[in-house]
Amino acid sequence: MPRLNIDELDDALVYERDEGFGGGMDAYTRSTLLQPGQFQYGLNGYVSNDFEFTTRAGANRLGTDASGGLRTQGLLYFDTPNYQQLIRVSNRAFQYWDGAAWNNMAGFQATDAVVDVVLEQGVDKVLISDGVQNLQLWNGTTFTDCGNIPGGGASPPVGAKILLWHANRMWAAGFSGTGAAGYERDAVWGSALLSFGQGDWDSTGRNFRIGSGDGEPIVGLASLSSSYSKGFAMAVLKSNSIWIVNTDPTAQVANFTAAIGPEQMSDGVGCVGKRAFCVFGNDLLFVSPDKSIRSMARMEAAQGQYFVSPALSLPIQPYVDRINWAQASKIAVLKYRELALFAVPLDAATENNTVFVWNGRLQRWAGIWQGWTPTCWAMSRFNTVQRLNFGDTLGSTKQWQDFQDASADSTYLDDGVAIPTTLYTRSYLFQEPLNPKDAFHADATFSLSNCQQLTFTLSADDQDVFTWSAPVSAPAPVLPQVLPFNLLSPANIEARKGLRGNPAFIESFLKLSSTSGWWSLRSLSLSAFLNSLLNQ
Amino acid sequence: MTLSDLATFVCNTVNMSETSDVAACKSFLQRRFEMIWNDGLWKDSLCMFTASVSAAGSSLLSSLWMPSRGTFVCPAFVDRVLAVRTDQRHLNVQRQEAYYRIDYDTFAKVGTPSEFVLLSPVVYEWDLPTSVSIGSQAADNGAKVSLSYLDVDNLSPVVLATTLPVSPVTTQAVTAFTKIATTQPVTLQQGTNVLVTLQNTDVAAPKRQRFQLLVRPDPGRASTVETLVTADAPTYDFNGNVFYTNKLSVGRSYRWAPGVNEISISPLSGVPYLTSGGTFIATDTTAVVQGPAGQLFPQVSYTGALYAEGFSGVSNPINLRILVKSKPPQFVNDTDEPQLTNVENCLIAFAHADMLVRGRQYGKASAKAQEASSLLDQLKRIETLQQAHEQHLVPEVGYMDDWDLRGHQPLGF
Lengths: 536, 413
Fold this sequence. Notes:
The complex is a heterodimer.
Chain A: E1 13-18, E2 24-25, E3 38-43, E4 45-47, E5 53-55, E6 59-61, E7 72-79, E8 84-90, E9 93-97, E10 102-104, E11 118-122, E12 125-129, E13 136-138, E14 143-145, E15 162-166, E16 169-173, E17 187-190, E18 207-209, E19 218-223, E20 233-238, E21 241-246, E22 263-267, E23 277-280, E24 283-288, E25 292-298, E26 306-308, H1 317-320, E27 332-336, E28 339-344, E29 354-359, E30 364-370, E31 374-380, E32 387-392, E33 397-400, E34 413-414, E35 417-418, E36 421-425, E37 437-446, E38 450-460, E39 463-473, E40 493-498, E41 508-514, E42 520-530
Parallel strand pairs in A: 2-3
Antiparallel strand pairs in A: 1-42, 3-36, 4-5, 5-42, 6-33, 7-8, 8-9, 9-10, 11-12, 12-13, 13-14, 15-16, 16-17, 17-18, 19-20, 20-21, 21-22, 23-24, 24-25, 25-26, 27-28, 28-29, 29-30, 31-32, 32-33, 34-35, 36-41, 37-40, 37-42, 38-39, 38-41
Chain B: H1 3-14, H2 19-39, E1 46-53, E2 71-73, E3 78-86, E4 90-94, H3 98-101, E5 115-119, E6 130-136, E7 144-150, E8 157-163, E9 166-171, E10 174-180, E11 186-190, E12 193-198, E13 208-215, E14 227-230, E15 235-236, E16 243-249, E17 252-256, E18 265-266, E19 278-279, E20 288-289, E21 305-308, E22 318-326, H4 344-358, H5 362-385
Parallel strand pairs in B: 4-5
Antiparallel strand pairs in B: 1-22, 2-21, 3-4, 3-22, 5-21, 6-9, 6-11, 7-8, 7-10, 10-13, 11-12, 13-14, 15-16, 16-17, 17-18, 19-20
Helix pairs in contact in B: 1-2, 1-4, 2-4, 4-5
């Protein structure tokens, strides 16, 4: 209850505290309505164990860049009993990383130097389409031209910009719609079972249409989790709707339109691009052109049924609104560990320059990452170890260093470049929304950190009124010789500051930001004195 | 203990040691020091000096501001005049009304003065209104300066805050000249004579520097050059008639030696630093010294003026010995010590109480303020008893109280 007067002779402090930050980022809700643990804005951080807000690890180049410095057109991890290759396409050329160096893949080049190239693995081979030329097969050592033979026993459909290995078939879609019958914008082709080379396709017998010319082109195909009843569910993402097809291998592909019937899951909610979605467990997370990020989830109580969720992106809606939607077709999404990473072009950017990070474990947005420009993602599994890789706009292929020593400074560099980290806490009312307050002190607790200058700013009633800086690093012992490792104190680090003398406020929050170094915020406390009510 | 030591001690005691806390504590210490200084006639606050006053050539009518003869204007360090005497006799202090209601003949009296009157603070001025202007490099056009001067009616103060260049204004007195946000030296001129030059280096963040001009009050000032420009209020030495300031630059003090036809500014110890007027270079000082006679610059806000009795009829000249209470000494810089002996503990207690108030612990602050008051009482006792003082032998009354005859009847009545 608001207090008209402060009756005590010696004023008592009132407190606010965030014990952790597992509530995730919420920039949409009024900042005073956020719950403890939520924060307004997090840049280049994620919620680590113990619900700490921690600087993300950096990403380092894998070997040398592709020649030309152009955007990466495609990236795929190819894994067979004989080969482990991370294949990239940039400046028309194909290369693979064998775990130690990049190797040129001679024999085929993409038509265009910047247009996306799709690659998909099945049956120990990779099918490749640049949308113009004959599709190619890569078996780990050589390309094989699949030709352009129509009819029964046909070649893979030339012009496909979407490929998917699903239910033991290769599926192709994404045609321009200007070609012959079977190449409509909503056409889906299926290969023969377990084979998708030349002669394994049928331009009349193994394709079907989704929506039958409803004006919505197909923008993506996704393989959904299998279960009884609809155990071969393939999601067909169109520009303004989403469909599910039960691709039963025993059924005739051509009958999927008429006899089996794709199931339309949504109308008015579609997808923006062929890389703008990912499968996350039982969910299909996708970026919809209605300026939202949604999930199509399989219902637990009804195994074969799916539903499209309300917008998951509501907490980051101010940033979703800033996406350059004219370039939204370039959005690239990947599920990695507990995270779903949405690389988007923000504001006037024409290429992806920001990553929205969804923590599926917490079902919260972990924040926004910048410093990366992924055009495509790929999770590699060299020696069965998962790593996050992405190709960027300058032809580099980078690998996230999340596996490196969390206490090493070098882990927190983006290829040698320091990573800025920022956190805006929720707004604190100190349980009295009407009484003005005088800030008394702030106390931030950090676990293992090494940041020479972390800047704190007290924002009172949305005005930055006080800024101070403090090093956040555990004191290291002075030894007579240099050790080959960091000897850091495991003790928590306290950063306290008196805030007396600042203007009174109704609500306040703290901004924490650094331009370099790394820190892990455990908890945050503020105290203040309540002032008498301003009632006139 | 220095101001910094005191503030640190108090802040550590109350566990509030942020920069803003220390700054607040210093301001509390300063205010409390001034309060204690004003609380009593501390021996450390008394100052005596000599001066001469002449009635000859008094120009009461021609002076538009105040009579320039028969009057002694106390130096700026004087807070209150306590007593005045001549070489021969004590002077009684008198109210001015007495000369109008009781002793009507005072204005016609001649001879040796026997009384004096305390006047309100006064300002100095040029004898006649003159033109002053502010000049600067073209690069500063549009930058702001301010000039505080006396309006043409010679009564109204005017503060001109304007952008450069400034047109000449006619005035009889300039009280202050402030350089704001300019990058080049700015000059204040009387006609073509440069009175003050404020260097660009004089202006530190937040690009504001106030200069005051001091003129020694001397009846013979027309023939001597006695101008000193300081960056802050001056202090003084206790030898009288000598002014110096220790605010010109950090770690350096300068002395103004009057009585010669030039300005002499020198370190307190050592050889004269500048003896012929001119402009200090930026690395030496923030002050500017004005040179030859006839270019004096007026000053405002001297406090504690006093008349010699008889106005124009005073013997010419008379020598005065004046006992004054000085203003609180400077207690601003971190290295300043409170110039009041044994005041530290009292200051600490008061500042502690103030810091508790700042922390909104009013109950605790009240208890601490009581302790501080006790220490102030103790300080007064120390001031009285623990140094040389005259002791009086008070005889006691024998075996009975003279006033208690009824209770004791030693004679058995």
